[in-house]
Amino acid sequence: MDVLDLTRLQFAVVTIYHYLFVPVSISLACAAAGLQLAWMRTGQDRFLHLTKFVGKLLIVTFAVGVVTGLVQEFQFGLGWSAFARFYGDVFGPTLAIEGMLAFFLEATFLALWYFGWDRLPRRLHAATIVVVAVGTLLSAYIILAANSFMQNPVAYALDPDTGRAHLTSFTQLLTNEVVLAAFPHTMGGAAMAGGGLLMAIGIWRVAADATFRTLSRLGAWIMLAGGAVTAISGDHLGKVMTAVQPMKMAAAEALYETTTGAPFSIFAIGELGHDRPFFSIEIPGLLSFLGTGSFGGTVQGIDDLQAQYVAEYGPGSYVPMIPVAFWTFRLMIGVGVLGMALAAYHLWSSGRAFRVPLLPRFLQAGRGTPRWLRRFALLAPLLPAAANTLGWIFTETARQPWLAFGISKVADGISPGLTRTEVIVSLAGFTLIYGLLAVAWCRLVVHLSRRPLVPAESPVSSEPVPAY
Predict the structure, then answer these.
(1) For residues 380 and 204, what is the distance between their CA atoms, to the nearest angstrom?
(2) Which of 192, 194, 221, 381 is most exposed, with minimal Cβ within 10 Å?
(3) What is the dihedral of CA 121, 126, 131, 136, to 10 degrees?
(4) Residue 69, burial from CB neighbour count under 10 angstroms (0-12, 13-18, 19+)
(5) Does a structural domain hold residue 390?
(6) CA nearest 150: which of 435, 402, 447, 441?
(7) Number of folded domains that form the chain
């Protein structure tokens, strides 16, 4: 591997690992805010205990997310300084605002929430966790706006003196049609990630405390609702991406010839070249529907797009890695659907009992969580995590060879003078740090999950207890 390939690998490792924690943080912040508001409305102690438990999970995950985010910022300067220098005026405002939200607003109000129990007035205390939840959503939107610029560059102009790109309209950057479509899709995936974690912990611990049953069902509902939002918004996102990056959708189906009523392959065996695989399960017209909204729509093929890009941008290959685009797109959908099915079955099996004629006993509602599900549920957080990761791999690799589509290629953004040794050593260091963080996060989550929701009664003190 040359320096460029190693730097791309390093960026992929850093970004993918960081994004394992970001969606969980977003989902847990919203869940904690919802649970505290539910406790204030109903006065039920189970919501109070679950609020504090979910908040502790949020703090642990948020801390790891901040550390991995700092490493990602460092990797930008290390490996992609040419890109940062050229587009710094465009990315600078978004990264500055996101930093203010993540490191100041979210961290400050999360600390106020954690240490404000029995110290702040009830409504003011609840407002702090709501601010954290809103801050995570705003932070995610800002970062997605920056990424959407790479997918569909808008609101920029090239300085004739410096040759650098500068921002012409921050409003247009935030209203890029790609970010408007990608935000609900990404937040749906985030809901699935956090919901899967809560559902797994709830199923695992329900035997120790019945309150965990509420947590498991809440996690399942969040996961199922997030999956529905992901599917609906993904349909719209596919149409937007077909308009701004037609090569990406053509690569997703390995469609080399422009086709009207293009099919979509659910599964294929064989080479993904110009000849169709020797075995393929296809749904007629589905790719055209995903890309154009009509089963009879026309989808541009890879060969025609390659010829168009050569004429527009000059000689070179503009075809991404077809097998990666083809399979990550399908695995993303398949793994996401599997997670939704697991959540739906848990809701069915743990809900109010009623009989359905001719349905097997293990599928009857209200029979309780079966043993096999309790074992398999521990994998529930991995399914949305895998779906999110596969989705981002598809999004970024299917844009290749562009760094910012139509403006600069990946090779143009690498840091000048960077050596293989520097990349390998830094990659090894990042991997070691991330390995330690993964062990620490897992151990802390397991430790918090094993503790009882209701702490043991403390000894009676003669000091007055502060009013809530």
Answers:
(1) 11
(2) 221
(3) 150
(4) buried
(5) yes
(6) 402
(7) 1
SS3 122: helix
Tens-digit pLDDT profile for residues 33-88: 999 999 999 999 999 999 999 999 999 999 998 888 888 878 878 888 888 888 88
Show Cβ contacts of residue 4 under 8 Å, excluding neighbours closer than 6 positions. Answer: 410, 411, 414
| Rounded distance between C-alpha atoms, residue 271 and residue 445, angstroms | 43
**Is 91 part of any domain?**
yes
Residue from 217, 216, 228 nearest 191 by CA: 228
pTM more than 0.85: yes
The answer to the question of residue 314 being in a domain is no
Residue 261 identity (one-letter amino acid): G
CA dist., res. 298 & res. 295, Å (int): 9
Number of other CB atoms surrounding residue 378 within 10 Å = 12
Q: What is the pLDDT of residues 5-20, one digit of tens each?
A: 999 999 888 889 989 9
For tokens 């019945």, the residue is: 210
| Distant-in-sequence, close-in-space partners of 111: CB < 8 Å, separation ≥ 6 | none
Q: Dihedral through CA 40, CA 42, CA 43, CA 46, nearest 10? A: -100
Q: Report yes or no on 22 lying in a domain.
A: yes
Range of the domain at 338: 3-245+320-450
